[in-house]
């Protein structure tokens, strides 16, 4: 299938050979599992268990609240030690409500929802409901509740389910391995999702640098005429939802709209596998494949880890560090976030754990911008990073917004390519956060103003009433005086 | 001779242009009052008095007369200061404007005697309670002006920092780069 | 609860991978591309040219270091970015090779103290420092700046000795009757005397100090003609430029457009009136056209950042160069053309921003089809 050329893009060192040929290994059950109540975009789930409770593997331990939220489940059988706040796998390491479970070693599934015997006869709502109950989020790293995206078929006319197997982030091989080792599960999951969406066509897009995955998926999909498997050129950020959609359909998703507006819904391959598990076996999402890599890791691996295992458990399983890492990163090196330490849990969106050396990161102090224009040339979104960063540096957030900073997908290509090593995308991340924070403050100021006006109006009304009730008396007093 | 022509023409031009400017300044002069109202509209309007003026309208007046800096409004924070600066056309360096940590009032229920003074003081009706009954602050409504703290006879009210959470966190501005 | 092993690392967001490229590497690649042409020219013009080259580059580095000291900023880090060396080098390439030492020193002062540092140093200047210096020198010292000489290759009989070179460069003691017009200057003068360009462009080769008559194009190939260092070795400069494109330091947009525009203008007018207008090949190999197109106009700091902008910029430089050479008082026009286009670079940048993904040119979101 012909693909459409995406603007810009970079070719970083991929270093996928560190783990690409290593089969997925299962992590031995750790001593403790730490399952945060918020592992997704949206409202945190409401905890259902307390210290001392016995839980079965797959039992719901936190219930979703509101439309954009997911359940969380016990990743193994055992006992709840406590429900407490521990540091989140987030750059700040801020505390986050977390259920701590002591595994009993049995690791047996509890009572699971009944498998949906024939998913293609089931209603789309039933499929979406099952996905929601199973706690599935977008596993490419965005962690948006998958069920919400499956329900887009109600509101929009979806023509294409685009299964994202691009995996354009350097180092990461978890999707590659899932496609190679669980090929049929991925294909089946994709067909179920397409059914839920009412999409007639499925396109599975895989970057050229994964020939085995391409081959296996193509073979498995051959039986299904609605599936097209498409190699896409190796280029970062090919896996960005909007850009992959463009590469496949040739259509740009309008700004501030969803890909669903042009009839496409994009899901990650690992999400498809999770949907397969949930629908065919009733198994919720309690584990995921994580690539543990980087040159500071003794033996890089692809690990299927239970949700809630600590990063340190995974590192230990990989034989520890071969040298002290300069940076620990969750996710890929381009869009991943730095980890505040090793005592944080693996969550549903953890696609990779990277222990990077200074040599690999190759960061250095910034030089002045020499206006080389590389950032303009490689920006897949058509932004002018050099100008936007200059405005942000001088606190002109309005100017940055006018130049389109809110359209930035934070892919990091501009920071990567900058010969002056200016942290361009950090400026944009800051600006996007600051603009949103300012909107919140404005909202609060507006609310305060409304409340203050209501308060003043009430006081005036009371004063008026008091004056009105006082008037007759005053008038009477005046008459008395006149009479005297 | 050439020199005289040059001096003459420059003087003439200077006088003419200066005259035009002078006339324009008179004719196009703007009344100050609408500005004052507009500035007042930008302020929170809670009359908290933390700026040092009696209320928002007085601060707006001082701003319009150019007597007060735009950075005094604590509840409005950096956002309001920016809007004021924009409206007034003044440049203000807010980069090292230390935003006061946003706070909200918290009533220690053991100490509250139910005097209702704080309720009367609160300009956003953010405290509920009745005479001789314990009072509580609705944290969502509180904008952290701190006036209730001053009137509380038993020191039961404390200003508490609004906790930094994952939901409201965002990347900080990059620290000044090592530019040579 | 305390978590001793947890450390806030929110000071720097990703990416945690960066290109190998640096400012320094870029600058040194450009210098590398200049080396072959420079070596040939220094050989051709001998000791005086070597002295002037050394003085110019040295002065630029010295003045840059001096202004860093004044500004209390880091001296070593700034010098080592290579930009001052490059500015001095490019300036030296555009000076008459036997010009006195103070031309090089003053040029450095103009370039660094006038054109670069007052704007905030590297990356901030509006105008190309080397070209500001060249033009400032040209209008201030027209005689010294047009005292071109024919090549006097080292180790040949007519080459000035070391001691003679010292008196040429440091005592402004130019031997009499040695100056020779550049190609463009020669044709311009001949035109004013009524000799048609169609004739003079072929005769130029005869004017310079060569043992036998060779066509001008051949002279250019071996660098054997009168002019600045960057003018004489046109073909090695072209090779250096192609090397920069291959190493992706520059793209084809600016040089391609500059050369293409000059070619088209010159060809069209030459076809109309070959006696008045020089042919395209003559324009391309004369007046340091290649140096301007590949090394001067492509200066990152003073040219537009977008590809569209670079095409417009290249067109402007090419067109203005041809116009100035053909109609204005100066035979060479590259420096003026580059400076004029530098001044509109911010405007070009503003109007040639790429279209945002998912938006129209105006910046509105694309319409959703079928709605």
TrEMBL record, chain A:
Q: Where is this region: Disordered?
A: 465-484
Self-association state and partner proteins as the record states: The complex is composed of six subunits: RnfA, RnfB, RnfC, RnfD, RnfE and RnfG.
Q: What is its EC number?
A: 7.-.-.-
Q: What class of enzyme is it?
A: translocase
**What is the protein name stated in its UniProt record?**
Ion-translocating oxidoreductase complex subunit C
Q: Which organism is it from?
A: Thiospirillum jenense
Q: Which NCBIfam families match?
A: PRK05035.1, rnfC
Q: Where are stretches of biased composition, namely Low complexity? A: 474-484
From TrEMBL, chain C:
What main location does UniProt list? membrane
Identify which cofactors the protein needs according to its UniProt entry.
FMN
- What is the enzyme's class at the highest EC level? translocase
Q: Name one GO biological process term.
A: transmembrane transport
EC number assigned by the record: 7.-.-.-
Q: Where in the cell is it found?
A: Cell inner membrane
| Annotated transmembrane regions | 42-63, 98-115, 127-150, 228-245, 252-272, 278-297, 309-328
User: Which Pfam families does the record associate with it?
Assistant: NQR2_RnfD_RnfE (PF03116)
Q: How does it sit in the membrane?
A: Multi-pass membrane protein
Q: Record's Gene Ontology CC terms?
A: plasma membrane
Classification via InterPro entries: NqrB/RnfD (IPR004338), RnfD_bac (IPR011303)
Query: What keywords sit in the KW lines?
Result: Cell inner membrane, Cell membrane, Electron transport, Flavoprotein, FMN, Membrane, Phosphoprotein, Translocase, Transmembrane, Transmembrane helix, Transport
FMN phosphoryl threonine modification, residue list: 182
Which PANTHER family does the record match to this protein?
A: ELECTRON TRANSPORT COMPLEX PROTEIN RNFD, ION-TRANSLOCATING OXIDOREDUCTASE COMPLEX SUBUNIT D
Function of the molecule = Part of a membrane-bound complex that couples electron transfer with translocation of ions across the membrane.
Question: So what family is this one in?
Answer: Belongs to the NqrB/RnfD family.
Cited HAMAP family: RsxD_RnfD (MF_00462)
The record's note on quaternary structure and interaction partners says: The complex is composed of six subunits: RnfA, RnfB, RnfC, RnfD, RnfE and RnfG.
Name of the protein:
Ion-translocating oxidoreductase complex subunit D
């Amino acid at each position: 299938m012909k693909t459409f050329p995406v603007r810009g893009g970079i070719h970083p060192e991929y270093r996928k050979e560190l783990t690409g040929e290593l089969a997925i290994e299962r992590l031995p059950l750790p001593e403790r599992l730490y399952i945060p109540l918020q592992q997704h975009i949206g409202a945190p789930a409401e905890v259902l268990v307390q210290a001392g409770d016995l839980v079965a593997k797959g039992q719901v331990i936190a219930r979703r609240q509101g439309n954009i939220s997911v359940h969380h489940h016990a990743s193994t059988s055992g006992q709840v030690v406590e429900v407490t706040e521990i540091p989140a796998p987030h750059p700040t390491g801020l505390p986050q409500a977390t259920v701590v479970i002591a595994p009993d070693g049995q690791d047996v599934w509890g009572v699971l929802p009944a498998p949906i015997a024939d998913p293609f006869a089931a209603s789309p709502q039933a499929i979406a409901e099952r996905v929601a109950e199973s706690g599935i989020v977008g596993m490419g790293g965005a962690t948006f509740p998958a069920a919400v995206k499956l329900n887009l078929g109600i509101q929009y006319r979806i023509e294409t389910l685009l299964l994202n197997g691009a995996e354009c982030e350097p180092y990461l091989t978890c999707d590659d391995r899932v496609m190679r080792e669980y090929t049929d599960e991925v294909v089946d999951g994709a067909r179920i999702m397409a059914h839920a969406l009412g999409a007639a066509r499925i396109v599975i897009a895989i970057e050229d640098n994964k020939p085995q995955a391409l081959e296996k998926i193509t073979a498995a999909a051959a039986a299904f005429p609605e599936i097209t498997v498409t190699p896409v050129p190796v280029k970062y950020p090919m896996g960005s939802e909007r850009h992959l959609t463009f590469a496949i359909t040739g259509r740009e998703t309008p700004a501030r709209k969803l890909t669903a507006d042009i009839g496409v819904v994009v899901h990650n391959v690992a999400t498809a596998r999770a949907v397969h598990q949930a629908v065919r076996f009733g198994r919720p999402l309690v584990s995921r494949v994580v690539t543990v890599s980087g040159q500071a890791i003794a033996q890089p691996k692809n690990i299927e880890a239970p949700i809630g295992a600590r990063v340190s458990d995974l590192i230990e399983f990989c034989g520890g560090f071969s040298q002290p890492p300069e940076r620990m990163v969750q996710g890929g090196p381009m869009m991943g976030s730095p980890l505040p330490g090793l005592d944080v849990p693996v969550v549903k969106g953890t696609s990779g754990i990277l222990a990077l050396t200074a040599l690999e990161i190759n960061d250095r102090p910034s030089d002045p911008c020499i206006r080389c224009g590389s950032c303009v040339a490689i920006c897949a979104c058509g932004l002018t990073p050099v100008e936007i960063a200059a405005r942000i540096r001088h606190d002109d957030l309005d100017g940055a917004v006018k130049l389109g900073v809110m359209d930035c997908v934070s892919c990091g290509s501009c920071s990567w390519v900058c010969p002056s090593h200016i942290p361009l995308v950090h400026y944009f991340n800051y600006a996007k956060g600051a603009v949103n924070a300012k909107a919140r403050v404005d909202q609060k100021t507006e609310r305060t103003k409304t409340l203050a006006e209501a308060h003043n109006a009430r006081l005036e009304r009371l004063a008026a009433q008091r004056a009105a009730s006082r008037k007759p008396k005053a008038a009477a007093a005046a008459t008395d005086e006149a009479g005297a | 001779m050439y020199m005289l022509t040059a001096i003459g023409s420059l003087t003439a031009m200077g006088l003419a242009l200066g005259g035009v400017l002078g006339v324009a300044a008179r004719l196009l002069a703007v009344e100050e009052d609408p500005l004052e109202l507009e500035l007042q509209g930008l302020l929170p309007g809670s009359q908290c008095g933390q700026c040092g003026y009696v209320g928002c309208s007085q601060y707006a007046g001082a701003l319009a007369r150019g007597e007060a800096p735009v950075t005094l409004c604590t509840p409005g924070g950096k956002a309001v200061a920016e809007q004021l600066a924009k409206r007034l056309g003044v440049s203000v360096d807010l980069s090292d404007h230390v935003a006061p940590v946003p706070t909200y009032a918290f009533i220690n229920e053991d100490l509250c005697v139910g005097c209702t003074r704080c309720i009367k003081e609160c300009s956003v009706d953010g405290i509920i309670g009745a005479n001789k009954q314990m009072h509580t602050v609705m944290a969502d409504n509180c904008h952290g002006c701190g006036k209730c703290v001053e009137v509380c006879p038993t020191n039961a009210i404390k200003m508490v920092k609004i906790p930094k959470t994952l939901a409201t966190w965002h990347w900080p501005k990059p620290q000044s780069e090592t530019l040579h | 609860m305390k978590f001793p092993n947890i450390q806030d690392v929110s000071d720097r967001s990703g990416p945690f991978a960066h290109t190998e490229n640096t400012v320094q590497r870029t600058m040194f690649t450009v210098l590398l591309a200049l080396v072959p042409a420079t070596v040939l020219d220094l050989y051709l013009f001998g000791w005086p040219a070597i002295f002037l080259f050394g003085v110019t580059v040295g002065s630029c580095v010295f003045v840059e270091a001096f202004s860093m000291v004044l500004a209390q900023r880091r001296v070593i880090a700034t010098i080592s970015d290579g930009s001052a060396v490059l500015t001095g080098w490019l300036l030296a390439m555009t000076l008459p090779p036997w010009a006195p030492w103070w031309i090089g020193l003053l040029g450095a002062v103009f370039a660094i103290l006038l054109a670069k540092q007052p704007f905030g140093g590297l990356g901030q200047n509006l105008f190309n420092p080397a070209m500001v210096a060249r033009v400032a020198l040209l209008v201030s010292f027209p005689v010294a700046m047009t005292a071109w000489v024919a090549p006097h290759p080292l180790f040949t009989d007519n080459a000035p000795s070391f001691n003679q070179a010292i008196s040429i460069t440091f005592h402004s003691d130019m031997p009499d009757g040695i100056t020779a017009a550049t190609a463009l200057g020669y044709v311009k003068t001949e035109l004013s005397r009524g000799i048609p360009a169609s004739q003079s462009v072929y005769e130029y080769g005869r004017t310079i100090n060569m043992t036998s008559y060779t066509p001008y194009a051949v002279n250019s190939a071996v660098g054997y003609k009168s002019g600045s260092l960057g003018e004489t070795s046109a073909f090695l400069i072209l090779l250096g430029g192609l090397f920069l494109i291959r190493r992706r330091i520059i793209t084809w947009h600016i040089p391609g457009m500059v050369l293409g525009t000059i070619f088209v203008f010159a060809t069209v007018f030459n076809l109309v009136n070959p006696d008045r207008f020089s042919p395209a090949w003559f324009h391309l190999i004369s007046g340091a056209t290649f140096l301007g197109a590949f090394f001067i106009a492509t200066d990152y700091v003073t040219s537009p950042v977008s590809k569209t902008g670079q095409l417009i910029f290249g067109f402007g430089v090419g067109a203005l160069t041809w116009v100035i050479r053909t109609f204005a008082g100066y035979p060479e026009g590259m420096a003026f053309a580059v400076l004029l286009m530098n001044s509109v670079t911010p405007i070009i940048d503003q109007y040639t921003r790429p279209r945002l993904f998912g938006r129209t040119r105006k910046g509105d979101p694309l319409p959703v089809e079928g709605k």
